[in-house]
Amino acid sequence: MVDPNSLQLYMSRIITQVLPHYVDFYIRPRLFHRSTDEIGESLMDHQAHQISGEDKLNMVINALPPNGGTGIYSYSKNSYFQKQSSSVEDGKVEEEIQKKMDVKRLASASNMIIRVADLGCATGPNTFSNAQNVVEAIRHKYQKQCPKDTSKFPEFHVLFNDLPSNDFNTLFTSLPQDRSYFASGVPGSFYNRLFPQSYIHFAYSTYALHFLSKSPEELQDRASPAWNKGRIHYTSAPKEVVDAYAMQFGKDTEKFLDARAAELVPGGILVMVMQGVPHRMPYSHITNGMLYDCMGSILIDLSKEGLFDESQVDSFNLPFYAPSLEEMTKLIEVNGRFSIERMELTNPAPWLKSPTQVVPEWVMHVRAAMEAIFTRHFGKEVTHEMFQRLTKQLLDKRDLLETKYRDKTQFFAVLKRNE
C-alpha cells in the first residue's frame, strides 16, 4: 500500500520541479515560435467567437482591438491613413511641449526618468513613430532648458497600452531596435486606472478615444425611445439615440479623465487625437456618418437575403462616438483637474486630393480597425460580404463624398494636469 505522505511528496516534486521544465522546453517554444499571422488569427477567432440565440439579441456591444498579425486585413498593414491624419498634429504636439512642459523640473523630481504612455497603441508602426516623436520633442525641450548640462539626459520609458486581447506579440516583435527609450506593455482598458499614482509625465491617445467602452444599454430596450431599430449607429437616428450615445461617451470620458488625473504628475501633459464633429452638425453629414449608414444598409440587405434575422441588426450598435469641442470642454471643466492648453478641430486629410481615389484602401483600413466587432456579432461570412459590398456602395456615392472630405472632423486637445 502506498504511503499517502510519500505520494504527496512525490506529486509535490512533479509540480514544482518537472512541470516548470515541461513548460519551458515544450509548451513555451511552441507558443512563441508561432508566426505573428497565426497568433493574430487565433486572437481574432477568440475575440470574434460566435454568439447565438438570445445572447446575440441582448448583448451590449463592446469595443475590441483591431486585427492582429501581419496579414492582408491586419491593422499593422492597414493603418497608413491614421498615421497621415495624426501626423497633422505632430508639429502642434511639439510646440505645446516646448511651451508648456517643464521637463527639467519633472525629470529632476523623478530621478531623471521621463515616463510616456501611449493609450490605445494597437499593433501598427504608428505607435512607434508617435513615441519617437514625443521622446525627441521632450529631449529637445530639456536641451533648451539645460544647455550646459550635456553630461546627463533623462532616460525615457514608454508604456504601450491597449486591451488585453490586443496583439502585443506583433507589436513587440516589430519594436525598433534603435529606439531611444525603454519599452513595456500595459494591458487593460484606459477607462480604468493603469499606472501608479503620479507616475506618468506625458500621456497621449491617438485614434482610440472615440471607441466607447460599450454601446449604450438603452438601445437594446424595445420599450425605450432610444431603441435603435434598423440602424447600427446614431447616424441618421432620432435625438433619443444620439443622446444615449452622448451620455455613454460622457461617462467614459469622466472615467478616463479621473484615471489620468491620478496617474499623471502635476504639470504632466495629456494629448488626445480622435474623431470629432463641428457643433450641431449631424453625424450623417460627414464621411464617417456616410460610412456607417452604408454598413447598416448592407446588413439590412443581407438579412433580407436570408443570411440572418433582421433582429440581429436591431441588437447591434457600434460603440463609436465623435464629440464636438463644446461637449469636450464641458466634460473637462466638470472634471476640474486639467487645464485646456489647446483644443481644436482640424481637417484629417489635407493631403487627400479626392476621396474616391482611395475608397478601396479606406474600406481596408476600416476593416482592419473594426472587423472583430462585426464578426463577433454577425459571424465571418456576413462580415466579409458586408465589407466586399461596402466599396461599391461608397463609390456609388462619390459625388456626395467629394463634398465632405474637407470638413474639420479631427479632434485635437492638449491638457495639463493641474498643480
From TrEMBL:
GO biological process, one term: methylation
Alphabetic keyword roster: Magnesium, Metal-binding, Methyltransferase, Transferase
GO molecular function: metal ion binding; methyltransferase activity
SUPFAM superfamilies, per the entry: S-adenosyl-L-methionine-dependent methyltransferases
Gene3D superfamilies: Methyltransferase, alpha-helical capping domain, Vaccinia Virus protein VP39
InterPro entries referenced in this protein's UniProt entry, alphabetically: MeTrfase_7, MeTrfase_capping, SAM-dependent_MTases_sf
Pfam families found in the cross-reference section: Methyltransf_7 (PF03492)
Keyword Cell cycle set for record: no
Stored PANTHER family: S-ADENOSYL-L-METHIONINE:CARBOXYL METHYLTRANSFERASE FAMILY PROTEIN
Protein name: Uncharacterized protein
Organism this protein belongs to: Clitoria ternatea
